[in-house]
Design brief:
Elements: H1 5-13, H2 20-72, E1 76-81, E2 84-91, E3 94-105, E4 110-119, E5 122-133, E6 138-146, E7 149-159, E8 166-174, E9 177-178, E10 180-188, E11 191-200, E12 203-204, E13 206-211, E14 217-223, E15 226-227
Antiparallel strand pairs: 1-2, 2-3, 3-4, 4-5, 5-6, 6-7, 7-8, 8-9, 8-10, 10-11, 11-12, 11-13, 13-14, 14-15
Length: 229
């Protein structure tokens, strides 16, 4: 009501007695104009704050992306290494990180390809090695490596060429040999046999459980890879 007094005074000073309708119209006009102006100012301030926040968020996102890209950038090469050719991440003059080394041994009729993790020029971590021989033999190892050898859990599959069956070993390895409680699978045309037991330096030692394709089982004692009568 206080804001409507100037309008009423102007009308009275003009020498006219305002009607009740005119007074109500003047008051309504004053009360409507003030909230409209306030709402407009509030909306403008809100839009400005939103635009500022959006710009700040965009700038932060851009900075984070740039920092991440800089931190993860590792040089890669395609170069001779260890009698083969290496393609992958490279640091301090040797393979470090993810990479593939392909080596051909003409005297053995063998092409060996390793793909996986490297540390200071050695296979170290998770990786897979595929050995292909000219006689058709293929040996594939997938698993853990340390000190450039099979160390840890892994699976080795041998087939073709010199093998009359597919031979699979799954279990622990030590310095490139089966070592620990493992399982071998013999896949033949006539069926599949299994043996489970402990391997020491690549050979069966102790009591093994052998399961045959017909479902029968047998316990066999081994020492240094030989059956004990």
């Amino acid at each position: 009501m206080r804001n409507s007094l100037p309008i009423l005074l102007v009308v009275l000073l003009a020498g006219c007695a305002p009607s009740a309708a005119a007074v109500q119209a003047a008051i309504a006009q004053t009360q409507t104009a003030q909230p409209t102006a306030t709402a407009t100012a509030t909306a403008t301030a809100t839009a400005t704050a939103t635009a500022t926040a959006t710009a700040a968020a965009t700038a932060t996102s851009t900075a984070t992306t740039t920092a991440t890209a800089t931190a993860t950038a590792i040089p890669t090469v395609n170069a001779p290494f260890a009698s083969g050719n290496y393609v992958g991440e490279w640091k301090d003059g040797m393979p470090n990180g993810q990479g593939t080394l392909e080596t051909t041994y003409d005297g053995l009729g063998l092409t060996s390809t390793y793909t996986g993790t490297w540390k200071d020029g050695e296979r170290n971590g998770q990786g897979a090695e595929i050995d292909n021989y000219t006689d058709g033999t293929e040996i594939i190892y997938t698993g853990e490596w340390a000190n450039d050898k099979k160390n840890g859990q892994g699976t080795d599959t041998s087939s073709g060429g010199r093998f009359t069956m597919t031979l699979i070993y799954t279990g622990p390895w030590k310095d490139g040999k089966m070592h620990g409680q493992g399982k071998r699978i013999f896949v033949m045309k006539s069926g599949t046999d299994y043996e489970e037991g402990e391997y020491i330096n690549g050979e069966e030692n102790g009591i093994f459980i052998e399961t045959y394709a017909d479902g029968s089982t047998k316990y066999i004692l081994y020492k240094d890879g030989e059956k004990v009568p």
